[in-house]
Specification:
4 helices; single chain; four-stranded antiparallel sheet; alpha+beta; about 20% strand
Length: about 100
């Protein structure tokens, strides 16, 4: 699975507050997870509504949900490679080979 994990208090006592998959699924029962679910489903959300693929969504979450109090990071090196390292063509091949539906 290709996921981004969002942690609260990453430097002190890390607490996982949400996971987002490349398929656009949000896992977790915290306010952060609930907020993300709502944003992903809201066609009027000014940022999230622009994304059509889970790769774009994970890139956004990994960068925008990282600050001193909250940290978002890929769940594995493989996830980072798929989201950040593959060219567009290699990514399309990966999606086809994986059989995942990454369309949001």
């Amino acid at each position: 699975m290709v996921e981004v994990i969002i942690y609260r208090k990453p430097w002190e006592d890390p607490e996982e507050v949400a996971r987002v998959t490349i398929e656009g699924e949000v896992k977790g029962e915290t306010p952060t997870a609930e907020s993300l679910r709502g944003r992903i489903q809201d066609e009027r959300d000014p940022i999230i509504s622009e994304y059509t693929d889970g790769r774009e969504l994970l890139r956004y979450i990994a960068s925008s949900y990282s600050n001193g109090y909250v940290m978002a990071n890929y769940d594995s090196d493989e996830s980072r490679r798929v989201v950040e390292g593959l060219s567009e063509g290699a990514y399309r091949d990966w999606v086809q080979d994986s059989g995942l539906d990454t369309r949001l």
